[in-house]
Amino acid sequence: MSTRELDAAGITDPELRAAYAASKAINARHGRTYFLATRLLPLADRPAVHALYGFARIADDIVDGTLPKAQQTMELLALERTMWNGDQPVLRALADTVRRYRIDRALFTDFLASMRMDLHVRDYATYDDLARYVYGSASVIGLQMLPVLGTVSPRDEAAPYAAALGEAFQLTNFLRDVGEDLDRGRVYLPLDELAAFGVDRERLRWARRTGRRDPHVRRALAHMVARNTAVYRRAEPGIALLRPWSRPCVRTAAKLYRGILDEIVAADYAILNQRAVVPTGQRLRVALPGAAASIGLAAGQNARAWALRLTSRPRSPRSASIGVPGSESSAVNSQRRISLVE
Question: Helices 106-117 and 69-82: crossing angle, nearest 10°?
Answer without folding.
Answer: 180
